[in-house]
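Minutes, project huddle
Topic: does the predicted pose make sense with adenosine monophosphate bound?
PN asked that the exact inputs be recorded in the minutes so nobody has to dig through chat later. Recorded below.
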Amino acid sequence: MSETIFTKIINKEIPADILFEDERVLAFKDISPQAPVHFLVIPKKAIATTNDITLEDEALVGYMHRVAAIVAKDFGVAEQGFRTVMNCNQDGGQTVYHIHLHVLAGKALGWPPYQENLKS
Ligand code: AMP
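Predicted holo structure (tokens), as shared on screen:
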């Protein structure tokens, strides 16, 4: 798998506004926020897409969600609520091929993300 910009953030080769870090994951603010609170939780292990998550990654991906909730609590948005999104490949809108959990909060978010009438 080719190196992404997130590997450079993990290796501190480029700066990021880091919110949480341990040996398994890193959380940092999204550079182009789509909500009042928008941060990313990434594993330090480079996994390209959701399709590439293996059995051995299951605990890691679960832990990413726990970290999302911990950091959301730090922002004071955990009780009001937040959305976690992991985009996969082209139709999912993925642009960085190192899995990441978007965490969006700070206002009531729209739903659904797809507006076309599916019934016709
Ligand atoms: P996705 O489109 O789901 O792959 O999301 C990639 C996200 O990474 C986007 O929301 C970008 O704004 C964000 N992003 C890209 N480069 C950086 C960076 N250097 N620091 C923080 N966030 C970034």
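Observations noted during the meeting:
- The mean pLDDT is 96.
- The two ends are 40 Å apart (CA to CA).
No decisions taken; revisit at the next huddle.
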